[in-house]
């Protein structure tokens, strides 16, 4: 367990310390209600029953019943309070984890499998939730019961209490040894789950490729192996969970049997009354219940602590986003790229590139695949930071600017259109507030997306997951409408001719020119036939500008 991770997790409870303390107090009070029960049992057997005192016996029974009911009420109240506090903390933990994804570098996000990140945020936080609840619901009340009843048992009979406590070291040693193995099994099962989840996600992403190559059998063989590995890991973890619980409960049962045997011998030798033995054994039984509960919940706590360490890595040890400035500017669309060099690792993608994008002008960057065009777009969007040179927006260096606010004033149509499951209107207005029907109609007109009028429900038509119900050209037109609906200061069109022909692209660019103020337009293309009417053409080759 990483204690710094645990300390950071406990900070989530700072705002709920009062409620958490209240829940703990209720749980402790619930545990305390059990402590007098062995004393009442002794009194009933030694006094009330031998003397035939029915009234006293009824009072003792009423007291035990009353303590049981009060304990149940305290347990219910404490459980509700601690559960609500834990739920709030887990909610903040999940929110912090998702927020972290927006703050890390794009290099990290693109290098990770989404299934792994999904598991860390969803699955790990769920395990942390279960482990935390086990601590508050079982460990804490159980500890109070064991200590309180242990004190009572020592006062009842020190010899039998010593026998009971004598099993403590064996319970602790077995728990430590088996807990170590169990933690390894938990980590192994988590890894197998990640592998299985990653392969399932890969199949979903490459389904068309699998079908066109008739590779279903190959993929089924591979996923069958992964499923078998996951099943084996799950079986091993379950076995060790059971072994841990059985070792603890067996030792407790052995302790109880020893107490019964030794106590019975004492009774036959008149060293102990029958009431003392029954009351002591009743107290031991009350203590044995919480100890058994703790043993059963240990696997959940181990899983929770293991998951906390994994999730803490996501929250604290990832690469930060490249720009963390705070200055907000009234961006006009003026971008300067000054002697920029950038590469992925050892591979240089852009070398000494300089260019300028001006409001109202259309600049095209052309060149073969792999020349660095899309990388340049990523730099302009602030996804990466150049290793040399700098970028400026309205003459303000990128490191000083709040990049989130800057991107809100940009419009981007990516090379690979990304749409969400939902309606046409939902996709066009995504990420923007305060828009009305006129804004949507104007954006559709600029994007030459008149096809929307012929859809079954118009703007309310569901386009399916990733726009599966639309053609490639329709998806790209919706992406253009989404990019221009907020009147951006700069519009970036990355390879728009993937799904638009030359005439359609010219029509869109002419429509964009009607926006006031006119945005700067950056057109990325490898197709020279669409460069008519462009103000400036910059040709990239092998990461260098070879002509303007």
What secondary-structure arrangement, pairings included, does this model have?
Elements: H1 3-10, H2 17-32, H3 37-51, H4 54-103, H5 106-111, H6 114-156, H7 158-166, H8 168-205, H9 207-212, H10 216-268, H11 274-316, E1 335-344, E2 347-357, E3 362-366, H12 373-380, E4 388-393, E5 396-397, H13 403-407, E6 410-413, H14 424-428, H15 437-446, H16 472-484, E7 490-494, H17 502-512, E8 520-525, E9 536-541, E10 544-547
Parallel strand pairs: 3-8, 3-9, 6-7, 7-8
Antiparallel strand pairs: 1-2, 1-4, 4-5, 9-10
Helix pairs in contact: 1-11, 2-4, 2-6, 3-4, 3-11, 4-6, 6-7, 6-8, 6-11, 7-10, 8-10, 8-11, 10-11, 15-16
Model description:
With 548 residues, the protein is of the alpha/beta class. It folds into 2 domains: 3-9 and 16-316, ABC transporter transmembrane region fold (Up-down Bundle), CATH 1.20.1560; 335-547, 3-Layer(aba) Sandwich (Rossmann fold), CATH 3.40.50. The protein is built from 17 helices and 10 strands. A 6-stranded mixed β-sheet has the order 6-7-8-3-9-10, sandwiched between helices. The protein has a 4-stranded antiparallel β-sheet with strand order 2-1-4-5, covered by helices on one side. Strand 9 and strand 10 form a beta hairpin. It starts with a helix and ends with a strand.
Task: Summarize the main sheet.
Answer: 6 strands, mixed
* Overall number of strands: 10
Query: Low-confidence stretches at least 5 residues in length (pLDDT < 50)?
Result: none
Basic shape: elongated
Offer a few descriptive terms.
Rossmann fold; single chain; 2 domains; alpha/beta; six-stranded mixed beta sheet; four-stranded antiparallel beta sheet; 548 residues; ABC transporter transmembrane region fold; 17 helices
């Amino acid at each position: 367990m990483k204690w710094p991770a645990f300390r950071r997790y406990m900070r989530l409870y700072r705002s709920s310390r009062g409620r958490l303390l209240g829940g703990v107090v209720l749980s402790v009070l619930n545990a305390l209600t059990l402590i007098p029960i062995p004393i009442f049992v002794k009194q009933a057997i030694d006094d009330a029953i031998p003397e035939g005192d029915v009234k006293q016996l009824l009072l003792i029974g009423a007291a035990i019943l009353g303590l049981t009911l009060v304990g149940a009420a305290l347990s219910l109240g404490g459980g509700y309070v601690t559960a609500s506090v834990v739920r709030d903390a887990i909610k903040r933990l999940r929110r912090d984890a998702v927020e972290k994804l927006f703050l890390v570098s794009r290099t990290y996000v693109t290098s990770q499998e989404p299934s792994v990140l999904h598991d860390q945020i969803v699955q790990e936080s769920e395990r942390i939730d279960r482990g935390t609840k086990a601590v508050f619901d079982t460990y804490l009340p159980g500890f109070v019961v064991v200590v309180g009843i242990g004190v009572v048992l020592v006062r009842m009979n020190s010899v039998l209490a010593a026998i009971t406590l004598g099993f403590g070291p064996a319970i602790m040693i077995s728990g430590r040894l088996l807990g170590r193995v169990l933690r390894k099994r938990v980590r192994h099962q988590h890894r197998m789950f990640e592998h299985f989840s990653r392969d399932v996600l890969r199949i979903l992403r490459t389904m068309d490729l699998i079908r066109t190559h008739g590779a279903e059998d190959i993929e089924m063989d591979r996923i069958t192996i992964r499923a078998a590995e996951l099943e084996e890991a799950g079986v091993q973890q379950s076995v060790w969970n059971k072994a841990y619980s059985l070792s603890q409960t067996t030792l407790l049962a052995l302790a109880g049997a020893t107490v019964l045997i030794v106590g019975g011998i004492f009774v036959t030798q008149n060293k102990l009354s029958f009431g003392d033995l029954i009351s002591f054994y009743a107290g031991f039984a009350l203590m044995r219940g919480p100890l058994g509960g703790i043993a059963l919940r240990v696997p959940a706590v181990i899983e929770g602590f293991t998951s906390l360490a994994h999730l803490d890595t996501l929250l604290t040890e990832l690469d930060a986003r490249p720009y963390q400035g705070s200055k907000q500017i009234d961006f006009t669309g003026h971008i300067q790229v000054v002697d920029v060099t950038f590469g992925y690792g050892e591979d240089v993608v852009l070398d000494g590139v300089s260019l300028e994008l001006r409001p109202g002008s259309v600049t095209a960057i052309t060149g073969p695949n792999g020349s660095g065009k899309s990388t340049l777009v990523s730099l302009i969007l602030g996804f990466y930071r150049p290793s040399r040179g700098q970028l400026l927006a309205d003459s303000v260096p990128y490191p000083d600017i709040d990049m989130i606010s800057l991107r809100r004033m940009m419009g981007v149509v990516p090379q690979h259109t990304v749409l969400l499951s939902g309606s046409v209107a939902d996709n066009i207005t995504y990420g923007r507030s305060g828009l009305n029907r006129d804004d949507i109609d104007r954006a559709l007109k600029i994007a030459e997306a008149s096809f929307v009028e012929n859809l079954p429900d118009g703007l309310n038509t569901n386009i399916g997951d990733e726009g599966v119900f639309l053609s490639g050209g329709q998806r790209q037109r919706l992406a253009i409408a989404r990019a221009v609906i907020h009147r951006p200061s700069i519009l970036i069109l990355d390879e728009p001719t993937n799904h638009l022909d030359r005439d359609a692209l010219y029509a869109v660019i002419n429509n964009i020119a009607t926006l006031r103020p006119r945005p700067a337009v950056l057109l990325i293309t490898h197709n020279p036939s669409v460069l008519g009417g462009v103000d400036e053409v910059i040709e990239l080759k092998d990461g260098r500008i070879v002509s303007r």
